[in-house]
Amino acid sequence: MDKLFLASFLGILITAHGVAGNMVCDDDIGMLEELESLEIEEENEMELSPIPAWTSERGSKVLVNVDSFGAVGDGVSDDTQAFLEAWDIACSTPKSVLLVPEGGLYLVNATRFKGPCSEKLVIQIEGTIIAPDEPENWDPELPRVWLDFSKLKGVIFQGDGVIDGSGSKWWASSCKRNKTNRCRGAPTALTIDSSSAIKVKGLTIQNSQQMHFVISQSDSVRISGVQVSAPGDSPNTDGIHITESTNVLIQDCKIGTGDDCISIVNASSNIKMKRIYCGPGHGISIGSLGKNNSTGIVTKVLLDKAFLKETTNGLRIKTWQGGSGYVREVMYQNVRMDNVSNPIIIDQFYCDSPKTCQNQTSAVNISQIVYRDISGTTKSEKAMQFACSDTVPCRDIVLSNINLEKKDGTVETYCNSAQGFGYGTVHPSADCLSSNDKECVFINQEENLEDAGTSREHIVHTEL
Ligand SMILES: *[C@@H]1O[C@H](CO)[C@@H](O)[C@H](O)[C@H]1NC(C)=O
Ligand SMILES: *[C@@H]1O[C@H](CO)[C@@H](O)[C@H](O)[C@H]1NC(C)=O
Ligand SMILES: *[C@@H]1O[C@H](CO)[C@@H](O)[C@H](O)[C@H]1NC(C)=O
Ligand SMILES: *[C@@H]1O[C@H](CO)[C@@H](O)[C@H](O)[C@H]1NC(C)=O
Ligand SMILES: *[C@@H]1O[C@H](CO)[C@@H](O)[C@H](O)[C@H]1NC(C)=O
Ligand SMILES: *[C@@H]1O[C@H](CO)[C@@H](O)[C@H](O)[C@H]1NC(C)=O
Ligand SMILES: *[C@@H]1O[C@H](CO)[C@@H](O)[C@H](O)[C@H]1NC(C)=O
Ligand SMILES: *[C@@H]1O[C@H](CO)[C@@H](O)[C@H](O)[C@H]1NC(C)=O
Q1: Both 291 and 202 in a single domain?
Q2: pLDDT tens digits for range 240-274
Q3: Hey, what's the signal peptide range on this chain (predicted)?
Q4: How many structural domains does the chain have?
Q5: 395 lines ligand 8 (CB under 6 A)
Q6: Which residue among 10, 29, 172, 220 is least enclosed by CB atoms within 10 Å?
Q7: How far apart are CA 174 and CA 418, in angstroms?
């Protein structure tokens, strides 16, 4: 990441505090530095050619076309067996390309595609893969998955194809749609589990039965140019869900669903999101965490450049009462909101349950959360909400250059048990954040810019 930007940012931080006569905590500076150095290698466009060169004279790639295994691709015939047979060959052959060709509509049942596979496998999806649409006929052995890939290493998923969960009957049978329905989980369209060094590029994932794309128990996953779409009222259809995974990069993705565009849950760290379009949906979320007294840990999350349109939440952290663990080192920057209901929200009283949730003494501990350069319009008056547990307050919330406005109306910030500070423009004002009383250096109101400049120099030379 841009080290010079960090230098100037810290310079501004100190200058701003010098002028405003606020407090700066050593912790804050350390935290910002650490977040700035959050390194996740970004997509190198040169590495991937749009279509692998399987026709090359050197014959470096082995083409495994599902059609050669009897897939019909008419949207009616069951192509599951053909896909499995093609998978077995592609997976066991080095440098192979499993091709789902353009033009076909392949009906495939809930299936586990298991690794480990030989090196350099590419899964090239150009056609459309659709799921059977009847929940009653779903394989009872695989209630939560449709296309499930596991134990892969160094695999590339790419193409202009579509993965379509045909989810409408599942949505209709959801207890969120109709309270008389039994609450049950539904399949995830695409799962990548227990894998590493995975790239997913292009692809459209749509109308999933429930979550669209889950990354679980995986390390080093780069997702770029993926589109996710489902109706805004389809229940629990999260776009990209990350659980128990590390070093995940999501960039240039357009996501619109009936739930979170991106959700990041337990045991995940080093998650970087860049150039994300979200809407409709419930926003970009960390959590929920801590349900049923569980432990939830999420650290080092960076969102840079996002546009959220007409979402119910913008940047959200949600935790249940009674949980434990922590969320720390989160930075959101360069975010534009358009008519978002809750643009900035930390909710430690999250309760997605028909019963009310009692307040408890234990809570997931939230600290070191930075918001900078966030602007746009809010639908609700409470443009910023920091609803934190009375017993486990949120600490070190930093706000810089925030400008959230409501068409014809005033905006405000709600705080409960939240500690932090703002500098630069912060609108609505964040005066309800309490300041940290210890471990902070008071920067004198009289301090002039020359002194601030010296401080900046000091940081540049010693810390970078
Ligand atoms: C899919 O699997 C289910 C359950 O195992 C089965 O009833 C059904 O015939 C299979 N094929 C399709 C296309 O649904
Ligand atoms: C909910 O489901 C019940 C039972 O299937 C049905 O009678 C009722 O009409 C449904 N309500 C709505 C609002 O769809
Ligand atoms: C969260 O992750 C930690 C560490 O992997 C694990 O011990 C804990 O059981 C997980 N919590 C839940 C709710 O799965
Ligand atoms: C969570 O723990 C609290 C305190 O020990 C207990 O009162 C409550 O019933 C527990 N909740 C659940 C869902 O287990
Ligand atoms: C809550 O956690 C307890 C103890 O870990 C477990 O026995 C219970 O099944 C969980 N309840 C739910 C609804 O997940
Ligand atoms: C905001 O969204 C609501 C629908 O949720 C719509 O009625 C309203 O016109 C929108 N406002 C603006 C300014 O776009
Ligand atoms: C829990 O605590 C919060 C903050 O003090 C309060 O606003 C809320 O009403 C309480 N909820 C319950 C169910 O007691
Ligand atoms: C929450 O985390 C902060 C920062 O790491 C720590 O100082 C504080 O003691 C923790 N609070 C609780 C209740 O564990």
Answers
A1: no
A2: 999 999 999 999 999 999 999 999 999 999 999 99
A3: 1-21
A4: 2
A5: yes
A6: 172
A7: 36
